[in-house]
Amino acid sequence: MKRELKKPERRKPAARVRKSPQEQNVEINGGANIEADNVEIGGDVVGRDKITNVISVTRSAIHIGTLAIPTLPVVIAAILVTAGLVFVGVSVIGPPGPSKMTGGFNVAVAQFGQEAENGQVVPSEEGQRLSRTVFGVLREQTDEFSDIELRSQVQIWHDDLANSEMGTDIGLIADEEAAQALAERLGADMVIYGAIDRQNNFVPKFYVTTEAKGAIDSYVAGHQALGSQPIRVDPDTSLGAGTDIARRARALTYLTIGLTYDVLGRSEDALQVYRDAETQLANWNETGEGKEVLYFFLGQAALYFSQQQAGLDQATELRQEAQRAFENGIRSNPEYARPHVGLGSVYYLQAFDTQPLSTLLGASDVLTQTFAEYNQALELAKQSNDQQAEILATYSLGTAQYLQGGAYKSDGQIDAADAAFRQAIDTLDSILASLKATNQQRLLGHAYQAQGSVFKELARMWAEQGDSQKAGVLIEQARQAFDQCIALSIDSRDKVLLELIIRGRCVPQRASLDMP
């Protein structure tokens, strides 16, 4: 049964009123400060009869005409009343909420600013209106989702939340660096941000943290824009349910839910959510509004799930679904790099399953298609400054070069195989520093494992050729690569890294090098 996200009729949460620094620093002084022996308080006191006598205060009593009231009980009563008012105030306001997000999948919706004439991004009413709309749609649509476990895992923050729910400020976020810093500060897995330009155009952007969590893979991480065609913004712009910004906000809801299922390890549910999104967002334009991102997420989920299947038929069907989704993404936005990486990976898996590998050099063009897609992805990633896509395309290109080396070796072309294998090693080596800098431990483990495998295959090839000296050097290089992979287990709690990559691949491959 498909899960439909419906737009509920629900009031928007009230905005928190934030005082300016000047207002917050005002010192409030009230009451009478009784210090002197005799303080004169001028003025009339009106009661049943008008009293014209001067009121005087001494250390021991307050004198009103001929009436003397002891001072000490009055002061004590005033203190008790003040303390009571403070207690009531604290009880009503309550303690501040957490400053770090604590959900299974955490989404922070930043304030959207507007670019001023000097190029600086500043707060604006229109930016706040857009930000509130995105937050409102995300929260309301997620709350309406039928899966109770899912709803309990998603946490969405915005500056409109009460202080008791969120004990910090998100603020205005306009660029990638600030979004990444905010994610680290809040513990957010996704940050939604953006700014209206000087022509009053707006494109929502989002950042998914590159640090591993659950089954979320590196291919969906990093910064992305939801649409190439900007939304025109002015005070008369409607932000209702059928508008462009509302459609894109609903799409972000589906992406959030799918990623949350990945965190929970429910890959099949994540895939179904993206399928549902394609159906439910039928009025979402094919071009310009970011639908290519949905197609990419759908394709990546299908490809990931295909590799978990034991049956060949089901795996093949899922690969075909992934291929269709990636091709749709490329048609939706030919300049979007990531679907090219995905489509190249579909071709790579077809090539990897080909036996013998030497046939890849003949009539089969699947290896050629693999290289074409990876190279296209790399070029587009550089043009669009998508650093994560550039890393992914480079890593994928290295694995394709490794496969090409195996094809040459299978065909008896030793020198060509050696060149392809060494090219793969250099390509993989070129991204190691970036993977370390961005703390992408899983992809770093994959890269070390791939390098070790290439060194191992090279050593075997030259040993078969009778060059034991060259083979010995290569075996030692393979050991070093696998050891670096295994070393990532120190202080790591990532089950995918520990169980699948390290224990499942690097440890047994390292052990095989010591066998006679």
What does this protein structure show overall?
The chain is α+β, with helices and mostly antiparallel strands and 516 residues long. Among the domains are: 35-93, no CATH class; 100-313, no CATH class. 53% of the residues lie in helices and 10% in strands. The chain has 17 helices and 16 strands. Strands 10-7-11-14-15 form a five-stranded mixed β-sheet, sandwiched between helices. The chain has a four-stranded antiparallel β-sheet with strand order 1-4-5-6. A hairpin with a 3-residue loop joins strand 2 and strand 3. Helix 9 packs antiparallel against helix 10 and helix 12 runs parallel beside helix 15 (441-464). The radius of gyration is 32 Å and the shape is elongated.
Main sheet: strands, sense, barrel? 5 strands, mixed
Number of extended strands: 16
Shape: elongated
Q: How large, in whole angstroms, is the Cα Rg?
A: 32 Å
Strand order of the largest sheet: 10-7-11-14-15
Helix count, per DSSP? Answer: 17
**Strand coverage percent:** 5-15%
**Overall helicity:** 40-55%
Mean pLDDT: 84
The helix/strand class is alpha+beta
Q: Low-confidence spans: pLDDT under 50, at least 5 residues?
A: 1-59, 85-92
Please report the distance between the alpha carbons of the first and last residues.
55 Å
Secondary-structure map with pairings?
Layout: H1 21-24, E1 39-41, E2 45-46, E3 50-51, E4 55-57, E5 61-64, E6 67-70, H2 71-93, E7 105-109, E8 113-115, E9 121-123, H3 125-143, H4 148-153, E10 154-157, H5 176-186, E11 190-193, E12 195-196, E13 201-202, E14 205-208, E15 222-225, E16 231-232, H6 244-263, H7 267-280, H8 291-306, H9 312-332, H10 338-352, H11 366-384, H12 387-410, H13 414-429, H14 432-437, H15 441-464, H16 468-487, H17 495-512
Parallel strand pairs: 7-10, 7-11, 8-12
Antiparallel strand pairs: 1-4, 2-3, 4-5, 5-6, 8-9, 11-14, 13-16, 14-15
Helix pairs in contact: 3-6, 6-7, 7-8, 8-9, 8-10, 9-10, 10-11, 10-12, 11-12, 12-13, 12-15, 13-15, 15-16, 15-17, 16-17
